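Deliverable D2.4 — example input (structure tokens):
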């Protein structure tokens, strides 16, 4: 079993795709002798191998009849990307796997970056929506206060006065009206004022009226003054 496996590994290691390269027209092998191809070989830009015997002077491909093609001399030391066409598939698959891994890692890094950026952006959007909602509420409150202020008349504003009335309550007075007419005169008991040098007498005259009241009735214009 082991010998068979070793022989298979040796056979796979000895595999050379150049052994199967030939002319697309006459099938002349590229490696027909140990000294290289018997005639020059060419590879076209359309992907065909031609020997020197089947080149056309009008620069067209003898295999697919493509016009104005470019030709590259065929040899084992070709430069990429044409050299990859003649590499054995296992080696090509290894390079392809490395390229796939590199591209996958690159895409994964980009996906993670943009996923994090998207998450942060969604949080920012949520915060902005909450702030806009709070701003709308504040605008409504400001508009309500503005409407209340537009209907407010400072001239009609009232405040309690600094004195009490007969009922012991403080009446409301205009807060911004300082004219003498706006001042409410407090109600106080009547006071009797005697002339200078006269003493009060508590004897009742004129049917119970005190002298001050009699004199008040005898003012000019009253019935007592006419008599």
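Example output (designed residues):
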């Amino acid at each position: 079993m082991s010998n068979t496996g070793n022989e298979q590994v040796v056979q796979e290691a000895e595999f050379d795709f150049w052994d199967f390269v030939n002319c697309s027209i006459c099938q002349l092998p590229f490696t027909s002798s140990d000294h290289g191809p018997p005639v020059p070989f060419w590879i076209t830009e359309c992907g065909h191998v031609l020997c020197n015997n089947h080149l056309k002077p009008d620069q067209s491909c003898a295999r697919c009849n493509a016009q104005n093609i470019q030709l590259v001399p065929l040899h084992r030391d070709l430069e990429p990307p044409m050299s990859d066409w003649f590499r054995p598939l296992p080696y090509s698959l290894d390079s392809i796997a490395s390229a796939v891994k590199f591209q996958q890692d690159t895409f994964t890094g980009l996906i993670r970056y943009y996923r994090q950026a998207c998450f942060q952006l969604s949080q920012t959007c949520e915060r902005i929506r909450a702030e806009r909602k709070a701003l709308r509420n504040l605008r409504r409150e400001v508009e309500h206060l503005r409407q209340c202020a537009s209907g407010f008349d400072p001239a009609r504003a009232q405040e309690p006065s600094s004195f009490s009335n007969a009922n012991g309550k403080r009446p409301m007075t205009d807060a911004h009206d300082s004219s003498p007419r706006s001042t409410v005169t407090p109600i106080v008991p009547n006071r009797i004022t005697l002339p200078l040098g006269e003493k009060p007498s508590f004897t009742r005259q004129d049917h119970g009226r005190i002298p001050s009241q009699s004199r008040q009735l005898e003012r000019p214009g009253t019935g007592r003054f006419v008599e």
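The chain has four helices and five strands.
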